[in-house]
Specification:
The complex is a heterodimer.
Chain A (H helix, E strand, L loop, with lengths): L1 E5 L3 H13 L3 E5 L2 H10 L4 E5 L7 H10 L6 E5 L4 H9 L4 E4 L4 H13 L9 E4 L2 E4 L4 E4 L2 E3 L3 H12 L5 E2 H9 L9 H14 L7 E4 L3 E4 L4
Helix pairs in contact in A: 2-3
Chain B lengths: L1 H67 L3 H5 L1 E6 L5 E4 L6 H4 L8 E12 L2 E13 L5 E7 L1 H51 L15 H50 L5 H32 L7 E4 H18 L3 E5 L5 E4 L1 H18 L5 E8 L3 E8 L9 H4 L9 H6 L4 H11 L4 E5 L4 E8 L1 H4 L10
Parallel strand pairs in B: 7-9
Antiparallel strand pairs in B: 1-2, 1-5, 3-4, 4-5, 6-8, 9-10, 10-12, 11-12
Helix pairs in contact in B: 1-4, 5-6, 6-11, 7-8, 8-11
The chains are: A alpha/beta, B alpha+beta.
Chain lengths: 225, 471
């Protein structure tokens, strides 16, 4: 996977690139808006990570110009402007995701992964299986090893979101955005309680846990480890 | 508004009518008096002349003088009659002593002023003329009547009265019409201004009051207000730029700090205790970042002119969503949470900020209400709009501390909660409420705290539109 990182802060760019490379991505760095736009237009990238405030062209203008030229490369916008309105504005401007600085590297990684794998699973799926856990998306029913599991509708939404991204790390803020449509961080870790309830529902009494906590990042639903 | 200016117009019309009437009435009375006095003076002069004649030449002299003046009726409207003691005419231009002054037995005294009508022949017709006269009882029993035709005067006064009446009526009508037109114009401009002000308060600082070039006092007001708005807009824009710079200049070093800490954590072979030392530092960093974000959010919300997307928000559904998010955490903390939102409660506003408001109230309850407590969230449609309240039976906030609790960085309650809270939750909630033209009120739930917020119906009608562009 080939990523373009447009970031004028050399220190941050170096760290992000290093982290991303360690995670197996090929990363090009552009240090201002003009270079970023040029590379994004000329090159073939799987994903672009663009800072919002850049010399020459800001991140949102780059997104706008790319879209105008018919380029649909997913763009993740990074910004030191983190108010709710900035986020919404960033997303409305055509960015595929928006992350406010400072963020945990794990958060960035999870979101990049989610953007890259987006669309891998056809939307019309009616059943998802992870090991012996089975989700019936039409009937909104969950079974594990054939035995029905009672979940509330929100728990089902949570589980569905995790199951559609089985094997990928999903962060708390991603869950807040997707399941509750909230684009800010509450002070307390409200999501953790939901996850532990969900874990109690699907993993309790089974030898192999499916819902795992990834330290410093979030959660992942996967078979084993 | 229109009512009061229309009433004012009516009041002025009435006032002008009263003054005009008084003026014209006094002119009328003065004119009538003057005319009457003039006639009386003429008559008295005639009587004096004739009295001189009587003294000099007796009745015969008077009769002679009267015969000389017999034709005076036609010229001056003067009326004379000398009658013997039995009221038989002797000389003069009246054919008979007026019936009603003689026959009835009510003989006039020595000298009296009388009014009667005579019939005169003019162009073959008999016309009645009012006459005002003096009657003198002469020394030798003869009667002398000297009078003047007042029909001219009566006519003048009638025309004058008519003109006065019409004048008053027309004046009243004109004043009323002008007043009503002016009142309507005033009301329209004030309404215009009010609408513009509402839009500005809803966050669109680019709006200005209309200046129609008439250079009247409204234009002067509009120009002054617009100048003030220019100033405010400029200040707001400076503030916004400042906030963005602060956000950028503080977040960037925080971000680098985080990057370095994370880099250290990711170093292969890091001992567990080194990890355990850096992890709390990262948490602390996150807290600083959250406080900064909240502070900036409060400042931007308060500064107005920020992007409040005019989303259609069902506050009941939003409250349900938030309660659903917090319920498991609250139950884990031993709190019982209930939602009372039986019907959709639509309003227009910024969904994320409204969610933040509810979040902050729920987090406060989570922080301050001890285990075993109850929290109740209710959303109701009221006549005025939508009412949201979050009530608990926790320690509450003392009445004298409530106003302070809404200000940034003020924390109430025990030290443990003090340590974890940023002290910004309620002030952000209050700022969000103000942005939606609502006021956050803290009350006594006896026991506990009730936070009440009533969003006006106006927030439903005029969507606060997005204006701020941050680049």
């Amino acid at each position: 996977m080939h990523l373009l990182l447009i970031e004028d802060d050399a220190e941050a760019a170096r760290f992000l690139a290093k982290g991303l490379r360690e995670s197996g991505y090929v990363v090009d760095i552009a240090s201002d808006g003009r270079e970023g736009l040029f590379r994004a237009t000329e090159g073939t990238y799987d994903l672009i990570v663009a800072d919002r405030q850049l010399p020459h062209f800001d991140g949102l203008s780059i997104v706008a110009m790319l879209r105008k030229n018919g380029k649909h490369t997913p763009v993740l916008v990074l910004s030191a402007l983190g108010s709710v309105d900035d986020r919404i504005e960033g997303l409305r401007a055509g960015g595929d995701d928006y992350l406010a600085k400072p963020f945990a590297f794990g958060e960035l990684l999870a979101r990049i992964e989610a953007l890259l794998r987006r669309g891998n699973l056809p939307e019309v799926t009616t059943r998802i299986r992870i090991a012996d856990l089975e989700l019936d998306l039409l009937g909104r029913k969950v079974t594990r090893a054939g035995a029905p599991i009672d979940v509330t509708s929100k728990e089902f939404q949570l589980l569905e979101f995790l199951a559609r991204r089985a094997g990928q790390v999903v962060t708390r803020t991603m869950l807040l955005e997707a399941v509750w449509d909230l684009h800010f961080d509450p002070q307390t870790n409200v999501i953790d309680v939901h996850i532990s309830r969900l874990r109690a529902a699907i993993d309790k009494g089974f030898e192999r846990p499916l819902l795992h906590t990834v330290r410093g990042a979030g959660y992942v639903l996967r078979d084993g480890g | 508004m229109r009512l009061s200016s229309a009433r004012l117009a009516l009041f002025y019309a009435a006032l002008v009518t009263v003054f005009t009437s008084a003026l014209l009435l006094s002119v009328y009375l003065l004119t009538r008096n003057a005319l009457e006095r003039e006639i009386a003076a003429v008559v008295r002069a005639e009587v004096d002349d004739l009295s001189d004649d009587l003294r000099l030449g007796g009745i015969a002299q008077v009769a002679a003088t009267l015969r000389l003046r017999a034709d005076s009726w036609g010229r001056t409207g003067a009326v004379f009659l000398l009658a013997d003691p039995d009221f038989r005419p002797v000389a003069g231009n009246l054919t008979a002593w007026p019936h009603d002054l003689a026959a009835g037995g009510t003989l006039p005294p020595e000298s009296a002023r009388v009014e009667f009508e005579i019939s005169a022949h003019e162009r073959g017709e008999s016309v009645l003329h009012p006459v005002e006269a003096r009657i003198e009882h002469l020394a030798n029993g003869y009667w002398l009547l000297v009078g003047a035709d007042t029909s001219e005067r009566v006519g003048v006064l009638r025309r004058f009265g008519l003109a006065t009446g019409w004048g008053i009526a027309l004046t009243a009508l004109c004043v009323w019409l002008l007043g009503a037109a002016y009142a309507r114009r005033t009301a329209r401009r004030v309404r215009d201004y009010a609408t513009t002000c509402e839009t500005i308060m809803a966050g669109d600082l680019t709006q200005r009051l209309r200046v129609d070039g008439s250079r009247d006092e409204f234009d002067a007001l509009a120009v002054a207000v617009n100048a003030m708005l220019d100033r405010i807009e400029q200040q707001t824009s400076t503030l916004r730029t400042t906030f963005n710079s602060i956000a950028h200049d503080l977040r960037t070093p925080l971000y680098r700090l985080r990057v370095r800490l994370e880099e250290a954590q990711l170093r292969a072979g890091l001992p567990q205790d080194a990890y355990d030392l850096t992890a709390p530092a990262l948490e602390e960093l996150d807290r600083v970042q959250r406080t900064l974000a909240t502070l900036l959010q409060i400042a931007r919300t308060e500064a107005g002119g920020m992007t409040t997307h005019g989303d259609a928000v069902d506050l009941a559904a939003l409250a349900a969503n938030m309660v659903e998010l917090y319920a498991p955490g609250m139950r884990a903390a031993g709190l019982d949470v209930a939602l009372d939102a039986p019907e959709p409660a639509p309003l227009t506003g910024n969904r994320q900020l409204l969610a933040q408001l509810i979040t902050n109230l729920l987090e406060n309850a989570l922080k301050y209400v001890p285990a075993g407590g109850h929290v109740r969230v209710s959303v109701r449609n009221t006549l005025e709009g939508v009412a949201l309240s979050v009530a608990d039976n926790g320690p509450g906030i003392a009445a004298e501390e409530r106003a302070a609790a809404l200000r940034p960085f003020v924390r109430v309650g025990d030290a443990a909660a003090f340590a974890t809270g940023s002290g910004l939750g309620l002030s952000l909630a209050a700022a969000v409420a103000r942005l939606h033209r609502a006021q956050l009120m803290l009350g006594d739930n006896a026991p506990g705290l009730i936070v009440h917020c009533e969003f006006p119906a106006a927030a439903r009608r005029d969507a606060p539109n997005g204006v701020a562009q941050v680049t």
